[in-house]
């Protein structure tokens, strides 16, 4: 059965006509059957030739002949020959360029029926990219720093880069494309581009070069006319051509020679070891440990080197070689060649070396030997220093290996844990060590945990590299333990004794708590607030009482502007003092205050610490304070007046002594009753005057408190003599109800006189408006329940208002007008009574009067104030007394009084004269004035110590200067008895008795 092919129909032609690629069909005779529009467009002006039946030869020939089409490749022998070849080919490809600048690839295929189909493909972009790539490749090859040339399969030059031309054709006349490469080299040798080796001819070199090119030799050497060393290599290509390279290695060879020379001079041993173990190179530093030169050592085989070196080796990698040096050394070297691990070698002469190997080309080795003797010695010293340092640490330290076995621990660690427990043996596991220490009770087990569980917990802590675990030891110590990983994957445990730190922290917490309590209890009003928004950070109770439970300072500033003004004053310097403010209290009232503030940092924020003092009451009291200042000024004037009056009283002492003395002597001696009565009146007035002067002087002088037994009755009477004149002159009735059996008290009589004088003067001022209706009652009594002597001073005045009773004892508080009161009398009296261990109490009823009570504890041996009958006993023997006084009248008075006291007096009106009298006569005692011209009492006493020491304990003094501190200090120092002017008979008698008593020292 035969199949008849039908000619393509119109539909198929239409489909082929719209293809982008050109399509043409020729019959068996190469006559045109069909050409689509793309093919016609390619032919351009020759498209009219595309008529069915026209011969292929005619169409193509006219297009080529006109230059519209140019054959690029595939028909190098011409189109007639190409068309003729199609008769025997099933397919062929031809590439053309069209006049419009495009390039087309035409693929021709023979069909089974003999027809010939041609498909035209536009390869313009592809060829443009290939051309660009070839250009870039040529430029890249041209830019390399060694010469490259390419030949075809016939060894004819195709391409040579710039570097190749610079080396093989510096004049640019030899390397032309298409020229045989051997011919180019031959001409280069002839023209001297390459130098001939010494003893060689051009023919020999050229023949050798032909062989090198033919065999694609590598690494052959050439020398340029300039003496540069050139290395050539030849490589065969896949297309049968050859790739030739020329490289200038002059600098490289010079560097290699320099390198070889430098390596030869290195202090580090360097050698090149071939795969067989034989040395191809070594420097002197490498050969020196063998005892050979480098040249001799390279002649030895691997085994010979081992035999030569082994006897010198002590150890390899820390292992002693003993008698097996060759075996162990050879094995170690072979292992290093395989593993390339560094190896330490120690020689018997003490030198240490580090041997290292690296692989080279050709399976060789580079061997580097570094002497580490100095380094080992430094490591040894460093290790000793480190060990000493570790042993000296205050922290306990213990090291375990990678298997958790014990290695070492320092001294502090042993002291902490092994006082009575055996120390661990090398290799003991850390888990076992924890178990031993916990079981032995060295480490205390926490409550609620068994020793076994706690030991496991500590072991897990170590394995997990825990930090700062707290341990409690049975000796009371507290430790912090931390675990660390070492570089050798072992464990390091550190133990820090924090016993004192924990104690200090506990004390600090207690101190902080105490400080918080103190701050909360502190009555000071202060606040801590944030600068930015005024938020209250801390508000103590006193401030909450003042401002309430506020959360912001804006709550107590009267307005926001006030706070801003306050901040403007505070922030520039961060400190503010005595800043006047107005705040709103919790009850809404306005407080006048003075603020001090400081800016500081708290938790990263700027805060204000401020303290405000409420001066509202202070401002209200300013007028009263001014009145008190005026009163104080008045008190100063009164004090000055008192000193003046005391001075006047002192000047009255001598004349008053004469009046008092003679008045006492005249008492009872006159027969005339009228004169006797007058003398009695004089005596009474003189005695009263003397008491007043003494009391006044006692209040005026300033001396340390002198506590001694004294009678409150006598003190009250003395105060009444001093302070009672005003009452008596105004007609006030004064009543005394004194207990004659009142026990003595322990006190300073002078200070107590001032107390009662102040109370009497206060009563006088309260009773002054009453005139003769005023009444003052002074009563003394004994309170057996409290064992106290009590004096009550009561008036029938207006009393003290309840509003001011609480302030009656405050300094400078007074209800009197300026000039009529100082406000210090009652405060001063209260202080004196309190210093004596007593009480000054007040009872008052407004409109009915006031009562003050002075309560003082009785003296330990207190008894009623009575005259001892023995005091009036006059010794039967007459006593010789030397009287020394520069005032003759006073001296004569003392002498007459002594005569009445059954003494034999002698008067000396000068202290130096008295010393002369003592040279001539003897006396039982001496009574001397103190303040005398020429030689005072102190100087007289010193003279007695030097010239008549037997009289030093028989001298007494009379002084009229009650205010002199010098006299007071002298009498207190020497302890001699003394009496004060005005001189009373009883005082003089007492002085004689004190001087008469044996062993009396003043």
Describe this structure in words.
The protein is of the alpha+beta class and 1002 residues long. The chain is 40% helix and 24% strand. It contains 32 helices and 41 strands. A seven-stranded antiparallel sheet has the order 14-13-19-18-17-15-16, sandwiched between helices. A six-stranded antiparallel sheet has the order 2-1-6-5-4-3, with helices on both faces. Helix 24 crosses helix 26. The chain is elongated. The chain starts with 9 loop residues before the first helix and ends in a 6-residue tail after the last helix. The N terminus and C terminus are likely disordered.
What key attributes describe this structure?
single chain, 1002 residues, alpha+beta, seven-stranded antiparallel beta sheet, six-stranded antiparallel beta sheet, 32 helices, 41 strands, disordered C terminus
Give a short synopsis of this structure.
The protein has 32 helices and 41 strands. With 1002 residues, the protein is α+β, with helices and mostly antiparallel strands. The chain is elongated.
């Amino acid at each position: 059965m035969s199949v008849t092919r039908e000619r393509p129909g119109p539909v198929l032609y239409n489909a082929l006509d719209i293809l982008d690629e050109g399509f043409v069909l020729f019959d068996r005779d190469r006559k045109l059957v069909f050409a689509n529009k793309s093919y016609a467009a390619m032919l351009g002006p020759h498209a009219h030739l595309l008529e069915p039946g026209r011969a292929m030869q005619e169409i193509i020939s006219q297009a080529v002949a006109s230059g519209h089409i140019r054959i690029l490749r595939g028909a190098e022998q011409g189109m007639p020959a190409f068309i003729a070849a199609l008769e025997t080919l099933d397919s062929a490809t031809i590439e053309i360029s069209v006049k419009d600048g495009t390039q087309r690839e035409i693929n021709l295929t023979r069909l089974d029926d003999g027809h010939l189909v041609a498909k035209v493909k536009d390869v313009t972009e592809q060829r443009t990219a290939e051309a660009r790539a070839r250009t870039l490749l040529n430029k890249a090859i041209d830019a390399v720093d060694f010469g490259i040339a390419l030949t075809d399969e016939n060894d004819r030059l195709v391409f040579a880069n710039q570097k190749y031309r610079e080396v093989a054709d510096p004049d640019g006349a030899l390397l032309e494309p298409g020229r045989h490469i051997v011919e180019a080299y031959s001409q280069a040798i002839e023209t001297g581009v390459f130098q001939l080796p010494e003893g060689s001819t051009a023919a020999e070199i050229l023949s050798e070069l032909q062989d090198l090119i033919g065999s694609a030799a590598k690494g052959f050497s050439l020398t340029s006319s300039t003496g540069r060393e050139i290395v050539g290599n030849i490589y065969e290509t896949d297309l049968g051509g050859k790739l030739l390279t020329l490289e200038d290695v002059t600098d490289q060879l010079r560097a290699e020679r320099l390198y070889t020379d430098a390596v030869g001079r290195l202090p580090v041993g360097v050698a090149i070891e071939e795969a067989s173990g034989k040395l191809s190179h070594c420097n002197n530093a490498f050969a020196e440990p063998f005892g050979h030169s480098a040249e001799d050592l390279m002649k030895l085989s691997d085994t010979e080197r081992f035999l030569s070196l082994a006897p010198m080796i002590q150890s390899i990698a820390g292992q002693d070689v003993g008698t097996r040096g060759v075996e162990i050394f050879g094995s170690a070297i072979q292992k290093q060649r395989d593993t390339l691990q560094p190896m330490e070698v120690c020689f018997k002469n003490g030198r240490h070396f580090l041997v290292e190997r690296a692989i080279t080309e050709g399976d060789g080795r580079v061997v580097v030997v570094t002497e580490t003797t100095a380094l080992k010695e430094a490591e040894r010293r460093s290790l000793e220093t480190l060990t000493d340092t570790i042993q000296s640490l205050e922290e306990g330290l213990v090291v375990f290996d990678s298997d958790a076995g014990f290695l070492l621990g320092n001294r502090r660690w042993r002291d902490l844990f092994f006082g009575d427990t055996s120390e661990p043996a090398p290799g003991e596991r850390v888990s076992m060590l924890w178990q031993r220490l916990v079981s032995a009770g060295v480490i205390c087990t926490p409550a609620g945990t068994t020793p076994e569980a706690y030991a496991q917990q500590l072991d897990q802590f170590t394995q997990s590299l825990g930090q700062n675990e707290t341990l409690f030891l049975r000796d009371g110590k507290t430790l912090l333990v931390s675990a660390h990983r070492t570089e050798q994957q072992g464990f390091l445990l550190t133990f820090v004794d924090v016993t004192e730190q924990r104690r200090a922290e506990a004390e600090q917490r207690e101190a902080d708590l105490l400080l918080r309590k103190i701050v909360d209890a502190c009555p000071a009003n202060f606040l801590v607030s944030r600068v930015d928004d005024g938020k209250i950070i801390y508000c103590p109770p006193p401030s909450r009482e003042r401002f309430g439970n506020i959360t912001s300072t804006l709550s107590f500033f009267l307005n926001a502007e006030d706070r801003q003004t306050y901040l403007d004053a505070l922030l520039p310097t961060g400190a503010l003092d005595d800043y006047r403010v107005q705040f709103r209290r919790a009850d809404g009232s306005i407080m006048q205050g003075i603020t001090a503030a400081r800016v500081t940092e708290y938790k990263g924020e700027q805060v204000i610490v401020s303290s405000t003092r409420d001066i509202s009451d202070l401002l209200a009291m300013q007028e009263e304070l001014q009145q008190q200042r005026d009163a104080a000024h008045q008190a100063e004037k009164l004090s000055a007046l008192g000193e003046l009056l005391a001075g006047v009283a002192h000047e009255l002492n001598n004349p008053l002594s004469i009046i008092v003395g003679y008045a006492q002597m005249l008492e009872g001696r006159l027969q005339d009753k009228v004169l006797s009565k007058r003398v009695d009146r004089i005596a009474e007035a003189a005695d009263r005057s003397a008491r007043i002067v003494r009391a006044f002087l006692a209040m005026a002088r300033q001396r340390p408190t002198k506590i001694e037994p004294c009678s409150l009755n006598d003190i009250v009477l003395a105060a009444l003599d001093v302070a009672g004149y005003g009452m008596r002159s105004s007609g006030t009735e004064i009543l005394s109800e004194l207990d004659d059996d009142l026990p003595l008290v322990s006190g300073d009589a002078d200070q107590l006189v001032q107390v009662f004088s102040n109370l009497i003067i206060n009563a006088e001022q309260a009773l002054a408006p009453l005139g003769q209706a005023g009444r003052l009652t002074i009563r003394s009594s004994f309170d057996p329940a409290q064992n106290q002597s009590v004096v009550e001073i009561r008036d029938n005045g207006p009393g003290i208002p309840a509003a001011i009773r609480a302030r009656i004892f405050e300094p400078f508080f007074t209800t009197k007008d300026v000039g009529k009161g100082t406000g210090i009398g009652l405060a001063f009296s209260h202080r004196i009574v309190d210093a004596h261990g007593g009480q000054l109490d007040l009872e008052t009823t407004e409109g009915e009067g006031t009562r003050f009570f002075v309560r003082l504890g009785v003296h330990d041996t207190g008894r009623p104030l009575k005259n001892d009958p023995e005091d009036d006993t006059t010794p039967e023997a007459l006593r010789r007394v030397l009287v020394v006084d520069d005032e003759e009248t006073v001296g004569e008075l003392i002498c007459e009084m002594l005569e009445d006291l059954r003494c034999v007096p002698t008067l000396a009106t000068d202290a130096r004269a008295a010393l002369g009298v003592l040279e001539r006569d003897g006396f039982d005692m001496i009574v001397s004035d103190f303040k005398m011209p020429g030689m005072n009492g102190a100087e007289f006493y010193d003279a007695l110590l030097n010239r008549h020491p037997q009289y030093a304990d028989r001298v007494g003094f009379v002084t009229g200067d009650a205010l002199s501190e010098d006299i007071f200090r002298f009498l207190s120092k020497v302890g001699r008895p003394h009496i004060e002017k005005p001189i009373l008979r009883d005082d003089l008698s007492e002085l004689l008795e004190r001087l008469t008593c044996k062993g009396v020292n003043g």
